[in-house]
């Protein structure tokens, strides 16, 4: 690619397999107001220019908060910004209160467009852009009284969207229609429209994004009530995006209204499976609202079913990397807040902001406390907010806080990586966007580099050169403090069993552990390996080991990207079984010291791994699981001889699922 004045022109080359994926997660509560081009420009980098964004940021990741073993330790920190950051590959926009009424008059739209062009010419959006914005405001003040019919239609349309409605524009996003009104001929847009066209705000956002990011294509565009998610990918990479799924869950009034809730999308880029979650949680200060926010997060993960095997695994654990952003509404609550009047507490927090006591403010942040207590989003990580709180501010540039609200870090970005993939991701910048002046929130954005996932070759015809297959024996399996799943009338307990399931790196579920029926369906070896059910027990121990036989792999490299799940399930006699939670286990991690190759002394090495992990469902802990997993590559003859010598062939038996119990 050629570079002119720091901006890329022409077609960029395709990335190498080892080149990192450059990703930006952006969250904005738009305050139900139409953003100007300059406001959007203060949030979304000009044509995805990561280099320029990093050169200007005041908030690169500080060295002292980067773990020693993190790949970002030597990446982008204070005084260490690379010259070749280039363009972002993915830009994820999570928006709340994102519906707004569009100004219908052409001259106002022209002024907004001029404002956008002025901002693009000078990213600092100086005096000229500000003057144009003032002109827009003056023009809006001059507008005539609304037509009552138009106002009524607008109210009904907005009401329906706010209640429960959703709109998936994903298949329409490559052709952005003009903003038009029904009954108005092309070229006569100055005429007063008879009624308001629904979803004009979507068209406005598309237009602004197209002007701001011409080198990108929209691959996800989903609206639920007032919540919106748009995912842009660099156009050269669009054909590499696969497996797109989107769903949403409402958590507003009665758990029906869509003014609150979340949207989740999943996709795969360069063999790496991502989940993106954007949410708008319960508002207001106070303990009960804090509890409701934690519940909202779990409900969103439960209700929005996307990704492979979503019946069993929520989006936070069925991807290689999951990201959560949004107006999460967690507040700053000082330790002695109970001994203060509301006004005193707000004044104290504002004083801390003026003195830039970021560490103390983060210590008082409800979300940070919830993560430390494991009360929500277990396993997720967020960087400290070493910048001014983003809520609640005047709709203008900078930070002027509204006196009746406690300044708080309501707008956030978090992430979680699958077991064994934690070191593949590096946060490089986490910052607010103070120039976004059309909302009472300041947006935030967090940039990452992600090492692409290596995917193994899993195929049924695969066999190792030595004829050995991979086996694992799970022993000393037990759970503690499992969640009660049964009604008190049924005993107020749970009837747990553990089913072992597997996802390959490419998201396939029935390649490694699933057992198909034999010829003519006569074989009983069908389904997933599992333990027996233990009735009425929240702290079960299974004495019988479980054998896992992995098919379709011939080497250690074939296991790359695959995850085994110890899925704890509650048995129900009269209804479908309920998932208590799952424990993801990286398959390569438990096989790193063994090989199917012959050894010099003819021995067959094994690897023992101790597992002790929380049982997770919807980001919450529902118990704890411990076990020992012993893995080995053996031939069928070696396996049978090993079993015979250990327990005697006469003691071998099989359970209902065809799993060998030793």
Automatic annotation (TrEMBL):
Domain of life: Eukaryota
Species the sequence originates in: Helicotheca tamesis
SUPFAM superfamilies: C2 domain (Calcium/lipid-binding domain, CaLB), DNase I-like
Pfam families given in the database record: C2 (PF00168), Exo_endo_phos2 (PF22669)
Biological process according to GO: phosphatidylinositol dephosphorylation
Span of domain C2: 451-600
Name recorded for this polypeptide: C2 domain-containing protein
InterPro entries, sorted: C2_dom, C2_domain_sf, Endo/exonu/phosph_ase_sf, IP5, IPPc
Chain positions covered by the region annotation Disordered: 116-153
Database matches in SMART domains: IPPc
Basic residues bias locations: 139-149
Gene Ontology terms for molecular function: phosphatidylinositol-4,5-bisphosphate 5-phosphatase activity
Spans through the membrane: none
